Every structure is written in C-alpha cells, then in structure tokens.
Amino acid sequence: MKHGRTFGVLLVLGVLVVMAISVRAQIETPPPPMNGVMLCETAGGTVVTRYPALGTNNPETDLTVFALGKPFCEFTAGDGSSISAPLDVLAANGPTLAAIAYFYPPAFVPDGTTANPSYTYCNQLGGAINFGAVSATGSGWVSADDVNDTRTFCVFADSSMIDSFGVFYKSDGAIRGADLSSAFTWQPGREYAGTFQQ
What we know:
By secondary structure, the chain is an alpha+beta fold. The chain contains six helices and nine strands. Helices cover 31% and strands 19% of the residues.
C-alpha cells in the first residue's frame, strides 16, 4: 500500500514537471512568422514560385531546373524595374543578412572582376550569386510559369537571399520595383548599420 501511494505521488510530480517544461517551452518559442503570402500581397507584391536552374544563358533545351522551388514576393514599378525577395525573408521575425543588406547597404566598390556589378556587389557583401559560381552558361531562379524569366539572388551565410540587382541599386539610393523597407516584418535598429562596413 505504501509503495502504491509513493508511486502515485511520484507519478503526479512527474506529470507536473512535464507540464511545467511544456508551458516553459511554449513561452520561449517565438510566434510563427506572419503569413508570407498575405504579407506580400498587402505590400503590393505578387507571389511567384521560382526554381534554381543552371544553364540560363543556354537554349531552353539545355537548361537544368532543380526540384526545390521557393516562393518569392516580386514588385514591379511602372518604369519596368523590379525587385524580388523570398517570402520567408520578408516574413522573418528576426534579423537576416538579406534584410540588413537592404536596409543598410554599403557603398559599391568596383573591382573590375566581372561585367555584372551586382555580382561584384554581392561578393563585396560576403554573399554568393545563386550557386556560388558565375559562369558563361549562367545560373539563376526561373519562374514556374516561364523558364526564360530568370532572377539572380545574392545568397548569404544564413541562407537568406535578396534580388542582387535590387540591393545593388539600393546601395546608390535607387529603388527598383518598390521600396521594401515597410514590407519586412522585422525592422532593424541602428545597431545593424555597420554589419557590412569594411
């Protein structure tokens, strides 16, 4: 009888400990990010699913498209300029390197290594263009609806990414497509202003 009562007390204590741990975990778990689709459309963007691809400068028959697509929010201005960012980057509740690069882009420092200044700028930021290798065959993210519609993204060490041309032009104060400043869920403080300064 005594052992049964002890077992019962231990069982109740165990359940209470498990419940306390569960509640603590719920309190410490950050809320899920805002729905990316709703965030994009509210900001005036369009959701486009894109897939990584190699051979984007080749004929369509020589294009290699890979499986892991990603939804992007894309903005196009009346002058035809545009910018794109992944939904998960726009909806992130905390800092991402892509968001910081957009908010606080350092000045462009040309180094003469490529004809495409957005590739040079991405490298300056410590990112990589798409797959980390720039070749004559080309690489990028193609639209699910049109494989000839290709975008290049600067990908950072935290796996966040942003339109390479958009962030390059922003470094000179030019806005392509739309100003994404209010589209990001996370808004940085000045403490992030020097993140990409050399």
